[in-house]
TrEMBL record, chain A:
Gene Ontology CC: NADH dehydrogenase complex; plasma membrane
Chief site of localization: membrane
Keywords in alphabetical order: Cell membrane, Membrane, NAD, Oxidoreductase, Quinone, Translocase, Transmembrane, Transmembrane helix, Transport, Ubiquinone
Role, per record: NDH-1 shuttles electrons from NADH, via FMN and iron-sulfur (Fe-S) centers, to quinones in the respiratory chain. The immediate electron acceptor for the enzyme in this species is believed to be ubiquinone. Couples the redox reaction to proton translocation (for every two electrons transferred, four hydrogen ions are translocated across the cytoplasmic membrane), and thus conserves the redox energy in a proton gradient.
Residues spanning the membrane: 6-24, 29-50, 62-84
Documented EC number(s): 7.1.1.-
Record's subcellular location: Cell membrane; Membrane
InterPro entries recorded: NADH_UbQ_OxRdtase_chain4L/K, NUOK/Mnh_C1-like
Bilayer topology: Multi-pass membrane protein
Protein name as annotated: NADH-quinone oxidoreductase subunit K
Subunit annotation: NDH-1 is composed of 14 different subunits. Subunits NuoA, H, J, K, L, M, N constitute the membrane sector of the complex.
Length: 100, 155
């Protein structure tokens, strides 16, 4: 039996890689993919703790996280398309109208 | 394997390569979910993430016609700070998670038969968590309408 700690450490590593990608990459689409990576890491943590406690509620939480991630991806990609139409770029460094 | 493909997601130069690496990450994660006896969530992961969300990503990538972007990454200060904060968070999380009880719960044979099945999760969703479930469905509807409104050039 693999200890649950390994799963939790894998989830932590995935989350940190996603965070690194969000902070470093400039393409907005890749930033979104990294956000999905972070959400998946959180899902893995939920499922690992559900297995640790023998409790099904973690599965329900993971289900809700998946649903919310789908909504977030749809809205985010729509915003990316709208920004690309008006600016012709998906580089997050070029979008600085609201920056003061 | 999961970490390698996740690393490819953040290092690949073209968005298409990132998306393909992300698909393989999702499949590896689904396998890990099965190891944790979460078969239902693993199936949903493959259907929703590797199916629906990745198709959406690929459509947008092709719609925007993004090739290999001119490699003009962020400055090295940003990279250094990002790497330092990610490593710091990883260190803190490892120390914290290392203190948790490492052994999984010892489920009885009856609990083993129902743990993580569609029936058990559905029972839980439609009784205890009915209101959040309805809220999520409303959220998905609003997101759908909002995505159409935002992405449409003129209405």
């Amino acid at each position: 039996m693999v200890p649950i700690t390994y799963y939790l450490l894998l989830a932590a590593a995935l989350f940190c890689m996603g965070m690194f990608g969000v902070l470093v990459r400039t393409n907005a689409l890749v930033v979104f993919m990294c956000v999905e990576l972070m959400l998946n890491a959180v899902n893995l943590t939920f499922l690992a703790f559900a297995r640790m406690h023998g409790d099904g509620i973690g599965h329900v939480s993971a289900f809700f996280v998946i649903a919310v991630a789908a909504a977030e991806a749809a809205i985010g990609l729509a915003i990316v398309i709208a920004v690309f139409r008006s600016r012709g770029s998906v580089n997050v460094d070029d979008i600085r109208t609201m920056k003061h | 394997m999961t970490l390698v493909s996740a690393g490819l997601v953040i290092t690949a130069r073209s968005p298409i390569n990132s998306a393909m690496a992300l698909v393989s990450t999702f499949f590896f994660l689904a396998g890990i979910y099965v190891l944790l006896w979460a078969h239902t969530v693993a199936v949903m992961q493959v259907l929703v993430y590797a199916g629906a969300i990745m198709v959406l990503f690929l459509f947008v990538i092709m719609l925007l016609n993004l090739g290999d972007a001119p490699h003009r990454g962020k400055s090295s200060v940003t990279r250094l700070l990002g790497g330092a904060s990610a490593l710091g968070l990883l260190a803190v999380l490892s120390v914290t998670l290392g203190r948790t009880n490492p052994m999984p719960a010892n489920l009885g044979p009856q609990a083993q038969a129902t743990f993580g099945t569609m029936a058990a999760i559905g029972q839980s969703i439609f009784t205890t968590w009915l209101l959040p479930f309805e809220a999520v469905s409303l959220l998905l509807l609003v997101a759908m309408v909002g995505a159409v409104v935002v992405a449409k050039s003129r209405i």
